[in-house]
Specification:
The complex is a heterodimer of chains A (226) and B (400).
Chain A: H1 8-37, H2 42-55, H3 58-69, H4 74-83, H5 91-117, H6 120-127, H7 132-143, H8 145-161, H9 164-169, H10 180-189, H11 193-217
Helix pairs in contact in A: 1-5, 1-8, 1-10, 2-5, 5-8, 6-7, 8-11, 10-11
Chain B: H1 19-25, E1 34-43, E2 46-55, E3 59-63, H2 70-78, E4 85-90, E5 93-98, E6 111-114, H3 126-135, H4 146-152, H5 168-180, E7 186-190, H6 198-209, H7 211-215, E8 219-223, H8 226-232, E9 235-240, E10 243-249, H9 250-254, H10 260-263, E11 269-280, E12 285-290, E13 293-298, E14 307-313, E15 317-320, E16 331-342, E17 347-354, E18 357-364, H11 365-371, E19 378-383, E20 389-391
Parallel strand pairs in B: 3-8, 3-9, 6-7, 7-8
Antiparallel strand pairs in B: 1-2, 1-4, 4-5, 9-10, 11-12, 11-14, 12-13, 14-20, 15-19, 16-17, 16-19, 17-18
Helix pairs in contact in B: 3-5, 5-6
The chains are: A mainly alpha (226), B alpha+beta (400).
Chain lengths: 226, 400
Amino acid sequence: MIEALDFGPIVLSFKLAAVTTLILALIATPLAWWLAFTQSRAKVVIEAITALPLVLPPTVIGFYLLIAMSPDALVGNFWRTVTGTTLTFSFAGLVVASVMYSLPFAVQPLQSAFESVGKSPLEAAATLGASPLDAFFSVASPLAKRGYITAAVLTFAHTIGEFGVVLMVGGNIPGQTKVVSIAIFEHVETIDYTQAHMLSALMLAFSFIALLFVFAMNRRFPVRVG
Amino acid sequence: MRELGKEPQQAASRTVTHGAQVADASRMPVQPPALELDFRLSSEGLKLEIAETIPLAGITAIFGQSGSGKTTLLRVIAGLETRADGRVLFAGNTWQNGTGAAAIPAHRRPVGTVFQDARLFPHLDVRSNLMYAARRAHTKNPLLSFDKVVEAIDLAGLLACHTTTLSGGERQRVALARALLTAPRLILMDEPLASIDGRRKREILPYIARLPRDFGLPVLYVTHAIDEVAALADRLLLISDGRNVASGPVADMLSRLDLFPLTGRFEAGAVIAAEVVAHDTRDHITDLRFDGGRLAVPLTNAPIGSNIRIRVRARDVVLATGVVENLSANNMLEGIITDMREDAGTFVDVQVACGTALFMSRVTHRSVRRLGLAIGRKVVVIVKSITIDSHVARSETKYF
């Protein structure tokens, strides 16, 4: 290597992806469960809303998030009263944005997995004395394991790869919001192609390996629009 | 070798039942604790309206054609159908009253359910499937300990197996053991043998037949196979188009001509309890005695002195108005015609009482006319031994 690679953005990207994946596991599980088993007419509406980040330009999501997070908006104001900091141009704001942006990548594989598990094993668990929560952890989750792995890998990789939303709500603060994709953009802007090359190659390799993992494991729980 | 219907004393302990009385018997207050059902449920393409009291003893077969609602009935009892509106009372405990959320949810009902498709957990091996139930058992029942159940269902050799490697029969045995390990007070079985071929079926029947005797567990057994009813059940509950049509002891129900359209026209026939008298190993014949006489059936492995059940299909029974000589058929029994019912087509179903046992014969209109068959007339019932099915699986339990 000709010059030292700046690891700051890489560490930050991975940290952001890890936190986002963790939070989404908690949010997406009940949402995917509800979508998989509900008879409600609201299902299609919620499904559409969940899938929105797949089709919207990141700038649109970023723009609305920026407005919602600004200190005088409801969400931003609440955050400031609770924590004393602002959401915009902070790591916390990036996490909120990433959770929104990567939501379908967590919900859809999980929903497919729960649907393919179906009600039968849960009914069997109930007749064996398992409460619904017990049945979820002892039967549904293990049977949906592949769905969880797919969801985690896709969410993680997609969060690492996001650019537009980060740029809109996070800006470019080293150690705070300067993730890999932003760093590459900056290197290109400053015509530092060597650094851009190294980071880009790293991203390419990482994304390829992540997808290879997902496809090698199964093709059963794809992300889809509609 | 012909035995005339005598031995009237033996009949004293049994009740003679004719068509009309049977329906009343089920509505009489019953001594053993009962499952009281009174509910309605309508979902896509099915309207279920059940008002029935099922004694919690022995094996009760719930019989009906596909789509008659018998599986849904079982699901309501198990607590899996919350859309049902009405009452489910188990031995006086309210399991459901009204509509919506059940008073007692499925996982707290002391019921062991065996589904048609077994529903073993694919992520667990056989032992873990069994332990799953044992750890969540409703009570501690020493009769239903892990070791006892595994021994009773002969699963010791399968414990380490993965569930996906099991045969259909093995899967159902594991499912049965798993249901037992919840320490239930009632076993529900939903066509557990529907996808299993005849020979394997016969291997599993004894395990089911033993449940009331060995574990003191009443069984509700949903099926649309009349031979399973004949082999297993003490009582029969007939379901048709979402309603409970009739119920009563199996032998009475299966000999009711008015129920023939529901119990299955082609397979219709009598179920007769008889005692094993002798085995003739040279001719491969087992001799049976019942209160209407003696019967020779194909050799069985039931011990002498034990009670078994045989099934004689209506289409296999020949009627004669006098004694016939030089006939190959081994069984000739004197009886009296107690009921006749004309079929829309070619047939007339004739019910003949030999002692207290009721045989059924399906004959043509022409035969009825030629022989002058009529209710009250004495006839001779002729049955070829080889047409008789012996059900050694169960030894007679007398709950009713």
